[in-house]
Fold each of these.
Amino acid sequence: MTAVSEHLPVRSGVGFWVDGYRSMLRFETKSLRSYLTIGLVVQVLMGAGMALMYGYYFGDLTPLQQTFIVTGIPALAMVPVGFAMVPASVMDHKIRNTYDYVWSLPVPRGASAAATFTIFTVIAIPGTAAAILIATMIYDIDLQVSWLVIPAILLTSAMATSVGYALGHVIPEPRVTNLITNMVIFLVLLFSPIVVPIEQFPEWWGSVQRVLPFWHMSLVIRDGLTDGLVTDAGASYLVLTLWTVAAWAATGWVVAKRR
Amino acid sequence: MTVDSALALGLPAKRSGPASWLSSYAAMLRWETRGARLLFPLIVVVQILAGAGFVLGFGLLIPNIDADMALYLSTGAVVMSLILIGLVLTPQVIAQQRMEGSYEFLWSLPVPRSAATMASVTLAALAAIPGVAAAMLVAVWRYDISFMVSPSVVPGCLLTLLCGCFIGTAVAHGVEEPQVTLLFTQLAIFFIIGFSPVSFPVDRLPSWLATVHEFLPFHHMAVVVRSSLTTGLVTVTLLDWVVVAVWTLVTGVITGLVLVRRK
């Protein structure tokens, strides 16, 4: 192919990447727009609905327990977007046989992946904010919001989107992904120390939760919304970063592979 | 067309009567069982996990759970399994048939529509049993509580199950668009688990929602089934039975009307 390479130069460089990223951002936003609207609604309903629902199941609550619920809600609201909607959007391409088409577009694969990732990370933020607001009104709790909440929400959203994206790409069979996302939702809603202190759980299960990302998600956000309730958020930031990096490594491995 | 003219055309005589209905029911039951043989084990596993998981999970989350609350939770899980199997599984199966394009074919089979529907209700009832058993066993093992089962458990569970199946069937056959049916099942799950006083006392709801639930069947179903599995936890009144029975009857009639409708 050397003979034609003068006429068909391989484009590369930062400028080309940024161009590709911007085109893919437009492409994905347009193809996902109704899906993203539903996502936003689901997130707000899920957040507000769970805030109410936990209250009904828990009965009489002390202000501290109420604060735990309210500050756990944002992490909870991010889970359906990151762990269900992102893998589902990747799966949708696989089911409709457009997966290879998207990869065949003349943009760097990294730019394409980064565009999807950006959209879902951004879409999670207004829903999360609305969920916090509604939960605060339901329980009438005064939160001590600090600037830390910004990196906390950005990192948790990025982590959830990355892991969901990796799940969608790494697992070849759409049904398996569907099963896993359902299991994750079940695990998060009923078996994770997000709206209650981790000490309430049996010790062995607490140790498992210290490895999984869900408890850490709630912890860093709680740290940004309250004063004195969380003592050591540094380790949680580290765990969340590790999950994000691992997810990107897994995605990168699949995305870069040629068939 | 009279019987004579049908015979003259070489068509078989129109079959009717209980014997024909029963043999159609048996045939459809075999049909449904074989059609679901791959899906059925998965549904059973999901039912077991959901029933057991619900009792275990909320047991972990609820601060200082006591025996009464554990009993409430586990009997609530039983009721939810019974309601949701009909309200969710039946519409999902029918929505699936509509999407695959096999819906019209099934309707064209020479069996009474009521026989076909009762066959799928029977299968749903069988699928509900493992989830119910799992919720009760986990509660006995984890919280060391005991159930006091009274004979009223049979009509209570049957009415609850039938009513859920009737609502689910009516929606699935009445709504043309399968996506809308699927959305309905999602909302039903959300509403029954989160906002119906099935697994928590009704006084925790805001008063307007509690009033709404006096007219809906779910709270009364919970009281009826709970009172037949425990003693001293709730008092069942005649009103509860009447509401559940009336709902089952009315939804049964509506389902019948939807089923005999012709295009």
Note: The longest helix of chain B spans residues 67-100.
Amino acid sequence: MLKPCILTSCMLAILNLITAQSAVELKGVVIDSSSLSPIAGVEVKWLHFPHHATTDNNGVFIMEGHTGDTLLVSHVSYQSKLVPFTRIKKEFMVKLVPVNAALEDVTINTGYQRLKPNETNGSFVTISNKQLNEQTGRNILDRLKGITSSLLFNVGKNSSNPQSETGITIRGLSSINGPLDPLIVIDNFVFEGDINNINPNDVESITILKDAAAASIWGARAGNGVIVITTKKGKFNQKLQADFNANIILSDKPDLYNIKRLSPSNYIDYQEVLFSKGYYNNLFSSSRFPVVPPAIQVFRDAAAGLISSSDSASLINEMKNSDSRDQFTRYFYQKGVSQQYALNLRGGSQNVSWLFSSTYDKDVDNLKASYKKINLRFENSYRPFKNMSIDAGVYYTNSKSRTGLPSYNDLTTVNLSTQIPYLRLVDKSGHSVAVPHDYNTRFVDTIGNGKLLDWNYYPLDEYKHYFTTSAIEEILAHISARYKIINGLNASLMFQYQKQHTETVTLADTSSYYMRDIINTFSQINPGTGIVTFGIPVGGMLKNYFDNSNSYNLRGQVDFDRLINKHHIIALAGAEMRDRWSSSSGATYYGYNADPQTYTTNLNFYDYFPTIFGNSATLPNSNNLGVPLENRFVSLFENASYTYDGKYTVSGSVRKDGSNIFGAKTNNKWKPLWSTGIGWELSKERFYESGWLPYLKLSATYGVSGNVDLSKTALPVGISNIYAATGLRYLSINQLNNPELRWEKSYQTNLRADFALKDHIISGSIEYYLKKGTDLYAPTPYDYTTFGKGSTITANVADMEGKGIDIVLNSINVNRKLRWTTNFLFNFNTSKTTAYYSQWATNLASFIGSGNGITPIVGKPLYAIAAYKWGGLDNEGNPQGYLNNTLSEDYVAIQKSSQDDGLEGGSFVYVGPASPTVYGSILNGLSYKGFELSFNFTYKLGYYFLKSSLGYAGLALYDGDGGDYSKRWQQAGDEKNTDVPSFVYPLNSDRDAFYARSEVNVLRADHIRLQFVNLSYSFLKGRGGFPFKNLQVYVNAANLGVIWRANKYHIDPDYPNTIPKAKTYAIGIRAGF
Amino acid sequence: MITSVSYNKAIIVLLSLFFFSCNKFLDKKSNTALVTPNDNLSDLQALLDAPSMFKNKTPALGEVSSDEYFLDDDLFSSAESMNSGSQNLYTWRYYPANSGGNDWSQCYTCIYVSNLVLDDLNKIKRTSSNAAEFDQVRGEALFYRAYYFLELLWDFAKAYDKATADKDWGIALRTTSDFNVKSVRSSNLEGYNKVISDVKLSIELLPDYALLPTRPAKAAAYGLLARCYLSMGDFQSCLQYADSALELNSQLIDYNGDPDIIADIDSKGVFKEFNKEIIFYSEINNSYFLFNTNTFSNVDTTLYNAYSLSDLRRRVFFYKKSNGYYAFKGSYGLKYNYYFSGIATDELLLCRAECYVRLGDVDKGIKDLNHLLSNRYKAGSFIPLKISDRKDALKVILEERQKELFMRGLRWMDIKRLNKVGENIVLKRFNEGTAYTLMPNSNIYALPIPEDIIKLTGMPQNER
């Protein structure tokens, strides 16, 4: 505290000196924003007038003043600054921020305290507001893509784990069956609402806590890393400031031809072959009246002599020339438009500061689904008296969304999930056409003799009559008080309340297919009188679902920060409690009409009613009263660091968490977690003399954080219910209790070096980490004689290990009028299972497949791929594998051998990881005068994916062929040029499955994509009536696609068989007043 | 110094207050539908009232292996395409370990709950005010455990043979809910003895009558003992307990017309839920589709033809399917296609009749049989049987037993025990040109324990 005071008085002395000089000249002093020491050699020049100057050793410059012009203050090691010179003011001070802000001027917000990077040994990444603004869109987490070290977005990995919503992993996985999401914190508290409710314009910065030393302060739920979002705040002694941001994002229509499929012509030819062999006969005999694809109906009618061969030929010809993708692209898909307007006002006097922000979002997507959102935010800080400050704020979100048209992939028939690629959806005059959906068209046309409602499905119209709206309302309110007890010692008390209400409403009117189908299904026609009786009233339907959640947090904390001679101590201690409550309910109303509102009150949802198909069913309903859930947590925490002489830092933290895990014994509810670290700022040592590497800091940390899954229990837990047949209350126990159940632990070691080359030409950090997960939850086969239900139980039986390297390099390549910087992010991460108590889990054959699910096998990564060994095609086009090391076509035996004999059996091979082991990005920034251009390449390397391929049995009902059909074996000799098997009949699904999962279809997934390009222009404040403090216009393009890939099939490995994300283009304006 | 000491004291007091309130704060239930049943009798009763204690529970593999249904060649091949290994199952060659839902797991689910209840009862004090409820819960738990032990013995052990019972393998007699206790296979003798001693204990505890047949009462316990002794070939004891049960309940439904017949006898769903003949309610495990004549297989034609034209069971029990064969719709289950396997008065009447005849009292046996049949035949058409020869009487009673107790989960046990006394029942299947035969007293009658259980526990598998 002493040092800055001395410096400030020096400054004042210098300023006095300047004032004493001639009035014609302008005098200034340039100082470092963090050390407050004067900077020599700073270039100062006017933008419009030719005069310029350079600072002397005291940081002082003297030059001619020009009112209305702007000064450009620049230095190679600092960020340039523009200083408008509005009125004659002869002396002033300019603070420059060092170029490598991450090292000097960044504040790390852990959610518990704010630190300078040199005050901690933990591993953090901080993403500034500027970096966050390089991408657009309404999801704040998506903006971390490509700009954040050690963060990986898992694309295409499916997880049945309910706690895997973000799809984000920080430094790889740390759990197998436990929660996979990082903990998300907003300002001070854990956030459990919908992340889409957070308006990116309200976010000041984001800090990622990576290692155990950083994350362990968050305790039992921080095992997957922590993302701390810091929101914007008002400042004391600040004039009213207004910022306005508006942008429009356009997204292209998706390219449906990206999915590799058969042309309708080839597809109908293929189906004709199958039809001639009798493959589709069962479609006509089934009592469920399934959809018969139109082409097959024509073949059937022609074969039965119902239509002439010339008629059938012309019908077939018409189908062959019609591709639904054309119609989809033309009539269903449109350009998506997303608009966002944000206004932010802030100001402050000596004792009060405030901020008000509002945002309005409006989206209409490619398929006419809409989304609207309003955010309102008010923040207030107040200093009622000396040493006391009070902060309070409210954040309100209201959003509404509505579903749109079905996508190309969604339009499948109900019973058989067939997709008919040649359907005509719109007729020549632009009207919607009915397509087969649930039942055979002929059945639908004839069953009611015209007495039932129209039973046709019109895909282009249905969304107008049957749709779901979802409205979310959220309030987040907080108040906190901070009191300075003595210098360096503060006590604070914080409270936050959160309430979210979601209402989902599905509406169907009488014209909807949805209603017509249900009404017809529950109809009966009296054969004598022909009178129709309806089991469900002819009318609409309203189905609603409410979901409520509340939470409150309370935290008391004492902070200590004091520099005594060479000893710097920073410490905090506190306690926290948290309660989260949620409930849900739903109901269905038939015969619903909105205006005047009517509905049927006396429908019986319990009994079975006859259907027109001759069987019986209950009326579909969603009536449900959810069980209220309440989770409580209590934590005690303590964190301290001690730095000697600015060089040596030791730090540590301890935390104890408790929760009301149901069925746990009290002493198991509490769990201590801790971390420790050491740091050494080598470059401050007297012996350290390196001209080229002026800054070097080494640190090492070790610690443990946890994972807890509240659904697992230690005592037998019965679920209460009433059994209708007996009318008695009963308890059923569905999960075997495990008294030994403990929380998962994640130990992490982190070694880090921070460095900066001379003048910050290159700076950055290199980290090596080792993660060890122990006591991980895993389903374990057990002797079910003991319990009966299921064949596995959950136990703490798995261990895993992850290790990796994170490298961040920032370089300044050119720093003149044109400035060019590069940020290079490199991450290497591997993880493997080290122990798994299951005799079946050791089987590598479990990896045969897409690799999209987590499979724990000792010694192997959690996401990996194995494939059947490929022996090429034989001279009849049959795929060959290996059985006992000899070529074989016994696909069932090959499959069995791979399961039973493992790798030794030789029928399959282990290929490699299915999740990137090397990933990162290269972000280039160029600036020239007011222009700034940035573009980001991201790369993912060192992994594999399974290409989709041709399966003849699958092709009978779905036309996806992975691009194989035209390459299939057709005649002897083809086996030399192709790996695609020949067509055989009867269809053999074992043969298809073997080929689909064989080596030839597993490809390297490595690729590089252009993540985004961002261009902006900032208008400089000119003369006269320019009302803005700053004004920036920008354009942005994102999802620009893959620019290099290792596979030769032109497949995007992130979207191997789906429609990839459409390219988006944004244009926007940012203005400050 | 004094102030610092009192500061410390204050801090200690505050901290302990904090911990105390935290623990209280954490005692809040996270889900109000959840209960940890360990300290009150109504929760323990609720555990035993769960439908999972009686629905889809008793073994089905015996029924799959018996002679009450058949598959023609078409069904035989489609059975295989529905579930590989089904042909082997049908022809007694191989029994797939169908983990989750297999006979073994289904029975032990109920045994676990019974054990949990018995373990938790140890934590509750029996007082004069809760004695009745306490005893009933304990009696029910003992009954349920014994009921499923016996079902498992019928499925997985050889037919009881006095001479070898102490050496023949029985089942795992689990008597604790602690899953850390290893499962071991006891002998057949120990198994039957455990059933008998537990049920005898339960008789002392159970009330004479219960609210519903899903809650065992005294008659159910007597009935269970009668079943047990019958399968052991101890006819004297069987007679005694069948008689005791019938003393408490001997009602029969008159198929000619009865309050418990709630629909036209040709329709499906003829019987009232929990009809008056039911003493204890349970259903056969529905995880094996082969024997389900409603959805898959056909009723054995010889057996169907054995019902005389004036026998109402022909219409109450069966309906003709579109393939020309018959399906069974006469179950006492909650729905006609839920296969009832519990204890009923008709079964006990037939037990008593068989025992009377075997013990020499032919008249009493035939009297019981006539009483039953007079409620089954069309009114006026039934002429009471008059048989005096012991052998003839036994033959008729056993035939009627098979006709009355169709698909009740008893036939496999009957075949096993009758072959022990020389009835020489040979089971035959003929499919796709191959004949399969199961000879009397074959090792195969002790069905294989699921292979995964054998691997995990090291218990001995049944010989093939």
Note: The radius of gyration of chain A is 34 Å.
